[in-house]
Structure formats: C-alpha cells, structure tokens
Amino acid sequence: MGCGSALPTRSNLPSSQLLELRNKQFLIDCGEGMQIRMRQMPVRVSRMNHIFISHLHGDHCFGLIGLICTLGMLGRTADLYIHAQPDLERLLQPLINYHGDGMLYKVHFEPFNPKEHAVIYEDRSVCVSTLPLRHRVPCAGFLFEEKPRLPHILPEQISRYNIPHSSINLIKQGAGFTTEDGTYIPHEQLTTPATSPLRYAYCSDTAYNERIIPLIQGVDCLYHEATFGSEMSERARHTMHSTAAQAATIAQKAQVGQLIIGHFSARHADQGRLFEEARSIFPNTILAHDGMRHEIRHAITS
Which CATH superfamily is domain 16-149+195-287 in? Predict the structure, then answer.
C-alpha cells in the first residue's frame, strides 16, 4: 500500500504492506496515507488483528493513529495487537487516550528487541520472527513462516476403501486405515505429501547487512529496500540504506526464490533504472509499486 521512503511522491506513499496468510491479515508498517491506498485498492481489514512496525521513523508509523481511530469509528470490537520496539507505546498511547474516546476495542502493545532474532508471534498456522537490521535507529525486519500442513488424503482412496469422514483427520496425522475385511492400508498409500510451508521476509530499512543471510536463506519471497541506485552509494552508506544492487546481492547470496525491491527515494523519478540494476544481479526481481497485489509462490529449487 506504499513503497516510497520518507518523502511521499505522486506515485509512492510511505511504507505499508498487508500480508494475507492462512486466512489471516498482517499489516507490516503503517506509513502516512496507508488508509488512502486501502480505500483505493480497495482492501478490507476485518481479519487484521496484528500490526508489525519495523522502526519508529515516521514513514513507517505515522499512519497508525489515523488507522486506529478509523477502526474505532467503524465499530471494531476485536482487540488489536501492535508489535514494535518498546518506545512506540510511550509515544502512541497518549494519542490513543486523547483521540480514542468511545472505541469499543483495546490496543495492546507487544514490545520486542530489534537487536535480537526471536519469535514474536505464533499461532497454530503461522510463526513471525524478527530480523535484526542495520539502520540509524533500532530497526527489525520480519520473517513470516507458515507452519507445516498435514498431508493430503487421496480422494480416490477414500472411495476405494470406503473411508468414513471420522477417520480422515487421523489418517492425515499419520495413521493407516483398516478396511471392513481386516485389510490394513498404510498411511503412505492413502496420502500425498503436504504442500511446503511458505516463507516471506520483509527487510526495510537497512544498510547492506550480510548477517541476515542465514536467517532468510531460501525464503520464497524477499522484500528488500532499494532506496538508492549505485550512483548514490555514498548517500546510501551515510543514511544506512541499501542500493538496488546491494538488495539483489543479498537475494542472490541468500538464494531466495524471488526479490521485490521498494522503499524508493523521491530522488529516483525513473525507478526502472533501479529495477534493471537489481535484475542484472538477481534476475527474478520485481519492482514494487503502490497498489500492487502479488501472490507469493514456492521457490523453485534446482
């Protein structure tokens, strides 16, 4: 919903993404203008209960208070959980107290240490962990991982052996099946392997940082900031951002399935140059744009 950096442009609002995974919605960063894109796309956030904020620069969190108040006006009742470094609660809670009178839901702050790689959210189907990044302020990326699914039971075997519905879940969990005449059918003959879990890594904002490579090795899709082109590598170093070439190098070394570059500086009116720079190093690169919808697919391994 936004792939620009600190200065909004006509094409790009500041950073914000909505990830849909296992019938859940996770908001990643919430820059100013996020609600505008949400209405334009359009996007419904009725299943969004968790927000993950990478760091406290304004282009990643200034949209939060507006979103929180809008959800209140829409009559939201489900609690909302915001995962961020501890300072966010101190900064945001007074605004919620002042502007959130009459809200029917509660906002919970879930602090994490951006310097550590740790699991910060987990349920039966999804796990989210932090990725320590290198920036001018404490900053963390996020790794979203599906948990392994159960094997698929073969429909033709259900019919062939007259398997009752009550036995299907046991078979998926590893059991075999005994027919009415006493014949035992092993689990392996009744199922096919489960679909591999999807993994998505979000890395913004950060200087070139090879320490994240083992943490994101082989992910299906990596979003990595590419604020500048290589001709501005000195400014990237000074501001602790990455160039498009550096983002692609991380993707190449981590052997990811796909790279999406974003967080573009307003200095780059022609973002196609950033795309070509990254693609020359890592061919399976996508140039992000505001309003883009992208389906994450499993990485193809050789």
Answer: Ribonuclease Z/Hydroxyacylglutathione hydrolase-like (3.60.15.10)
